[in-house]
Amino acid sequence: MYLTTMIGNLLIILATISDSHLHTPMYFFLSNLSFSDICLTSTTLPKMLKNMQTQRKIISYAGCITQMHFFILFASLGNFLLAVMAYDRFVAICKPLHYTAIMNPCFCGLVVVASWIMSALHALLQSLMVLRLSFCADLEIPHFFCELNQVVQLACSDTFPNDLVMYFTSVLLGGGPLTGIIYSYAKIVSSICAISSARGRYKAFSTCTSHLSVVSLFYCTILGVYFSSAATHSSHSSGTASVMYSVVTPMLNPFIYSLRNKDIKSALKRYL
């Protein structure tokens, strides 16, 4: 599974770099998303595979904080990039005549850098909040990696400030991009419905299907994590849902884009 994720996303990155037809904002954002997916799975799967091989499910305190920090960083980055890609589709369909002026290389570079900065600050904030907590010795994390919520629940000291920060950042950094995606697609659907020909509507909507599939998979699995843990308080169900958005989703993203996108499909034929 890890190898499939690595190869699939690396092929997407190589295809977007080598093929001049893919030197567009949409594929620039896609290559960054693929890189984010590679890093996200690399924060958890290698350690899990090592634990399975050695039969020693042990991680140090420093290792746990480091793993949690980078997991939050790349999960947040993927979230922001999906929102940016939705805005790209909004401009392409709703404002096609202004697309090249709005989505210029400078703007695209700035939004990616801004996404990295906000993700890094979010990860740093959550890590610093965990560092202030006190933990008892030899704790067992009921998860396959150091997930933020599970780690905070194991603390011996007051976790109210941590819970407050987690809920606030979830609403702001999670709900903000999701609201932007919903708004973008509401405008896209409105614009597509205004197109008179059925062929034109199909062509316009087909440019969004890959991104919409990835967005649905990403957010549905994340919502599944929180709803399952809130409803059942079961670490097993929460862990299963976490596997979906942290492992399965990055693995499926290259397949979704390659199967539904003719440009990516033709570019990938050079490497397969």
Structure description:
The structure is a single chain. This protein is mainly alpha-helical and 272 residues long. The protein has helices at residues 2-18, 25-42, 45-54, 61-94, 99-102, 105-131, 148-153, 160-193, 198-206, 209-232, 235-260, 262-268. Helix 4 (61-94) packs across helix 10 and helix 11 (235-260) packs across helix 12. The radius of gyration is 20 Å and the shape is globular.
Number of helices: 12
How many β strands by DSSP? 0
How would you describe the shape? globular
Main pleated-sheet profile: none
Overall pLDDT level? 84
Beta-strand level of the residues, as a percent range?
under 5%
What Rg, in angstroms, do the CA atoms define? 20 Å
Which class best fits the helix and strand makeup? Answer: mainly alpha
End-to-end Cα distance, whole Å, is: 19 Å
- Low-confidence runs (pLDDT<50, min 5 residues)? none
Q: Tell me roughly what share of residues is in helical segments.
A: over 70%
N-to-C series of helices and strands: HHHHHHHHHHHH
Could you outline the blueprint of secondary structure elements for this entry?
Blueprint: H1 2-18, H2 25-42, H3 45-54, H4 61-94, H5 99-102, H6 105-131, H7 148-153, H8 160-193, H9 198-206, H10 209-232, H11 235-260, H12 262-268
Helix pairs in contact: 1-2, 1-11, 2-4, 2-11, 4-6, 4-8, 4-10, 6-8, 8-9, 10-11, 11-12
Brief characterization of the structure:
This protein has 272 residues and is mostly helical.
